[in-house]
């Protein structure tokens, strides 16, 4: 994964290589750091016989038309947990009840012709009521799917988080 930057963002001099690199003109060290995101694995109930999760059909690129979990990029200085709560309000129109942290996953996101590294943080969550008002600018529809038989998701980190969440919930129901 690379960035388009072939010039130093500080002095504008050409860079010898893609980041990570140091500008030979001004000494600026340039890195490509993963952008943090926060996502929700909204479950239909912690003790349901077949645990289902909420998925949204993406309305915009990248990956328009594919299923995803609610979530998005963290704002500067925003903790992923706070971003997860904010994304729940923005994308579902409700204040979700946040549960355990599932994990962090390195992935990628196509943005403005660049492939950006992302650090996706996933949390279990539940709805306080059975009312969802999706943002039509971001999602075309929503549906509930089996956690153990999930459809392919828009981003590979979502697939991995769903597998880990299913394993965690299976272990917890078995009392381990």
TrEMBL record:
Keywords of the record:
Hydrolase
**Can you say what this protein is called?**
Nudix hydrolase domain-containing protein
* UniProt superkingdom: Bacteria
Q: Which InterPro entries match?
A: NUDIX_hydrolase-like_dom_sf (IPR015797), NUDIX_hydrolase_CS (IPR020084), NUDIX_hydrolase_dom (IPR000086)
Which CDD domains does the record cross-reference, listed alphabetically?
A: NUDIX_Hydrolase (cd02883)
Q: By its UniProt entry, which Pfam families does this protein fall under?
A: NUDIX
Give the organism the record lists: Luedemannella flava
Cofactor(s) this protein requires: Mg(2+)
Every Nudix hydrolase domain range: 33-168
